[in-house]
Amino acid sequence: METDDRARTSPPPHVPADRLYDIDLYKPDGIETDGYLKAWKRLQDEKLPGLVWSPFNGGHWVATTGALIREIYTDPDRFSSQVLFIPKAAGEKYAMVPSKMDPPEHRPYRAVVDKGLNLRAIREREPQVRALAASLIDQFADRGTCDFVGEFSAEFPIQVFMTMADLPMEDSPKLRALASGMTRPGGNSPEEMAANLDRANKGFFDYVGPIIDARRGKPGTDIISLCVNTDINGAMMERQKLLGMISLLLLAGLDSVTNFMNMMMDHLGRHPETVAILRDNPEELRRAVEEMFRRFPLVAAARMIAKDIELDGVELKAGEMVLLPTALAGLDEEQNPDPWKLDFHRSRISHSTFGEGPHRCAGLHLARLETTILLEEWLKRIPTFHVVTGSEPRFESGVVASVDNVHLEWEAA
After folding, report:
1. Model confidence over 25-80: pLDDT tens digits?
2. What's the burial of 410, exposed, middle or buried (CB within 10 Å: 0-12/13-18/19+)?
3. What is the DSSP string of 37-93?
4. What Pfam families would the database entry show (predicted)?
5. 359-399, pLDDT tens digit by residue?
6. How far, in Å, CA of 31 to CA of 276, rounded?
7. Domains in the chain with CATH codes
8. Calpha distance 93→197 (Å, rounded)
9. Residue 340: C-alpha distances to residues 37, 215, 297, 354, 397 (Å)
């Protein structure tokens, strides 16, 4: 395998030999030829056990079924969020809250984050989000072609979030680079990756520190002001936790949705029959969007095992890590029959794209709104389109996968 030249960690004695598999989160086998989702789905196609051990990235378990991924996400007593990223050495450098907190400590901090991201707050922003999407699409709709990444996805969700946070758009390239350094840290060893993630984490803290100081104690409706001026259990939030909270908002708002949109639009550009269904049934678009999130998952976070337990017939020891590739939840045949098919009438849509349990993604309402508006405004102006002949997306795996090189074209009006 291509990953054989990377650092390996010997499995601990309690790991059975038949549970050892070469799985590299950052370079899954087949990603360059088959793409991100098929590279991960291969683990299920090969009928691997529910839990397997990988020697890469410091050594860790991997959950390979949707049922196990959901079970682990929803059980913070056995699976802690104190370390969320693989390799563990890098995950230990991650200092953002409340995502790295366990209940009950996590709950009041999550309530603060939800103030600016709850369903009502997001619905109030719909006119502004719609106007931005329309204006971006109008810039290229009459041209008949676009670089979707450069001209839309790298602008739309980021402009939405920077506006919600009242931050200058010229800061977005720096923040996107920091986000990439967190979710796809470079390096050929856990130690190198830990150093790179730590550098990106500190970069976020250095950026948000002056912003927190400027907005604390002052009224404001932007999402940062709402957080920094809210007490926790009747007391002012510690500065270090505020640094982690505001940094988390930026990290979450600047990476995941952009790459999801790239994956989705590349697929639609290759399947005109699916575009026709969306175009001809606008009343069903919101349900279709949920099916899109099932079909195009791109997060692979992790949990730390909190205590010695047995699961799926193997022993798990406290302190070990288990990877949760959400691709293996949304594309699991046991959860979703015929999972590769985009079925907008699927009776039960099952996925873990937004996570599960107490740490389910706080930004899910915004992600759904942005995706729905993208499709609505796009199809009004560009009812049929396809990928440019010979154009192939580029994938990079990580805690959040990246998707680049999406070029679309259509018959201009």
Report:
1. 999 999 999 999 999 999 999 999 999 999 999 999 999 999 999 999 999 999 99
2. middle
3. HHHHHHHHHTT--SEEEE-BTT-EEEE-SHHHHHHHHT-TTTEESS--SSSHHHHTT
4. p450 (PF00067)
5. 999 999 999 999 999 999 999 999 999 999 999 999 999 99
6. 29
7. 2-409 (1.10.630.10)
8. 7
9. 10, 47, 12, 19, 19
